[in-house]
Amino acid sequence: MKLKGFIMAAAMMLLSSCSAKPAWVKVEGNKFIGQDGKELIFRGLCYSDPVKLAREGQWNERYFDEAAEWGANVVRFAVHPQNLNNYGWDKTIAIMDQGVEWAKERGMYVIMDWHSIGNLGTEKYTSGMYNTTKEEAFKFWRTIAQHYADEPQVALYEIFNEPTVTAAGTQGMNWTQWKALQEQIIDTIRTYNPNAVCLCAGFNWAYDLTPVAKEPIARRNVGYVAHPYPQKRDQPWEEQWEKDFGYVADTYPVVCTEIGFCLEDEPGAHVPVKSTVVYGEHITKYFEEKGISFTVWCFDTSWAPTLIKDWNFTPTTQGVYFKEYLQKNSTRR
Q1: Which of 280, 291, 329, 245 is CA-nearest to residue 70?
Q2: What is the rounded average pLDDT for all residues in the chain?
Q3: How far does CA 55 lie from the centroid of its chain?
Q4: CA distance 242 to 238
Q5: pLDDT tens string 21-32
């Protein structure tokens, strides 16, 4: 009888282990906690756009192999509204599903990013490729939250890429209004996926998080986004970074979902990304001191600042720096 009881207990434990759902990344204080229960700092790469890459024949296992070989523990899927609509929602989700599987097989998390630039509140945007509506943004996040509700590898939901402060951007919408709209989207996401970690950006092309000091997002399990490209501020950078977004990391998790630089004479160089490797050294050291996560723009040959020169994955100037840094600091499972 004792042996029978032991066998039954062992069988129950095995069944429980097999049926247990995988853990989700979550927020505790100012930290992300990984699936192993330990602090997780995301360090990885921004993909240009799943549809763009698929059309160019580059959305494949080799692409994901290379990201993993560079040391990324996270990759960001920049889903552009125009590409999504032109390619078709079902086809786009199908290729993203394959991408999620490839990322999972290589121990990399996924950031899902609604990649628009402009003002979601007034529906004014900086370029046609970013055109969307509030209705469509809600539809996108309902679809993503429901579709990936059982997929913890899709760890972070980046609600809106870059809210702007130009005439074509956030004029007519203040932080209080933008905060409320983001909270509505979070509530929609949580209806379908209560485990989702949502990322919220501020104005000035997702650089300025100063309003968070007085009006933080009133939802649990959220982090904040900043895009501190080198020309957003003059050198010396650190004191200004601290004032503009870095202080938030003392209280909440921060993910700088876009950083990067081009030399002035490199293809695609433009404001605000022109700089040198000095920027790379300063920004990564600052992130280490603050515990800030990041993904580097862009793991592509044509969307600047690029990390690679060609589809043999020859690194650019910034590619050389960030590849070495990611490999040295890799925490990929």
Answers
A1: 329
A2: 93
A3: 22
A4: 6
A5: 679 999 999 999
Strand arrangement, sheet containing 124-125:
124-125, 117-119, 162-163
User: Which 8-state DSSP code applies to residue 208?
Assistant: B
Q: What letter represents residue 278's amino acid?
A: V
| pLDDT tens digit sequence for 81-95 | 999 999 999 999 999
Q: Where are the alpha helices (DSSP H) in the chain?
A: 2-19, 50-55, 61-69, 81-87, 89-105, 134-147, 175-192, 203-206, 238-244, 277-290, 317-328
Determine the Cα–Cα distance for residues 276 and 118; give it in Å rounded to an integer.
28
Note the pLDDT of residue 18: 42
Q: Is the dihedral of CA 52, 58, 60, 65 positive or negative?
A: negative
- C-alpha triplet 315, 44, 161: angle, nearest 5°: 105
Beta-carbon count within 10 A of 218 CB: 11
Is the pLDDT confidence value at 131 over 90?
A: yes
DSSP secondary structure, 257-321, as one string: EEE--B-TTSTT--TTTB--HHHHHHHHHHHHHHT-EEEES--SSSSSSPSBSSTT--B-HHHHH
Helix (H, G, I), strand (E, B) or coil at 18: helix
Rounded Cα distance, 203 and 188, in Å: 22
How far, in Å, CA of 162 to CA of 169, rounded?
10
Peptide bond into 216 cis (omega under 30): no
Measured distance CA(9)–CA(269) in Å, rounded: 64
C-alpha dihedral (317, 77, 26, 148), degrees to nearest 10: -160
Contacts (Cβ under 8 Å, ≥6 apart) of 34: 25, 40
Residues 312 and 308: their CA atoms lie apart, in Å, by: 8
What confidence tens digit (pLDDT) does each residue in 139-195 have? 999 999 999 999 999 999 999 999 985 655 557 789 999 999 999 999 999 999 999
